[in-house]
Every structure is written in structure tokens, then in C-alpha cells.
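User: Sequence in, structure out. Go.
Assistant: Echoing your sequence, followed by the C-alpha cells.
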Amino acid sequence: MSGELESFIAGIPARAAQLDLSGMKASYAFAVDGGKSWTVRIDGQEVDVSDGIDATADCTISASEETFSRLLDRKLGVMSAYLSGQLKLAGDLGAAMRLSKLIP
């Protein structure tokens, strides 16, 4: 797996520290099809990233490594990926929409 997605996930707390996330409380599981996974928990300015999927995450986001790479490189839009089935969301879709605060 390329380090691009791992770097992006690991950098979420640093990006969050520069934003006003007061009132935001959600957890996200990111899963690469057949690969690595992470859980990101946000409770206001407190942001924690851990390896693996927490089954209690509010929203699970899964895709192939190629799809995640294309999303991060902005060669593919999130909505296009979702509508075409390349990006899968499960759980609280409202929480997924709030995640856009952390994605530059």
C-alpha cells in the first residue's frame, strides 16, 4: 500500500488542530478493500487516530487503494466515486458530510 493514504490519515489530528471543530462529535472507520484500516474519533478539538476498525464507528468509508489515491490526488470527486459505487459509505451519512471539514 502506498503511504499516501496512511500519511493523510495520520495528518488528520494536525489539520484538526487548525480548525474550529467545537460541537463536532463523530467517529469514522476508513477501510481499504483487502488492506489496512483506521478509526478516527473526533470530539471537538480532541482527535484520535487508531489502527483497525471500531465496530461502533458512526460512519464507515471503504474503497480500493486506487480509489482512495485518486480521491486524494483530486483526480476523482467524492460524489462521483460514491454514485459510481467506487466509494462505499455505511452508517450515519450526515457524519460523512461533516467530515469535509477535515479534507482540504
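User: And one key feature?
Assistant: The chain has one domain: 3-102.
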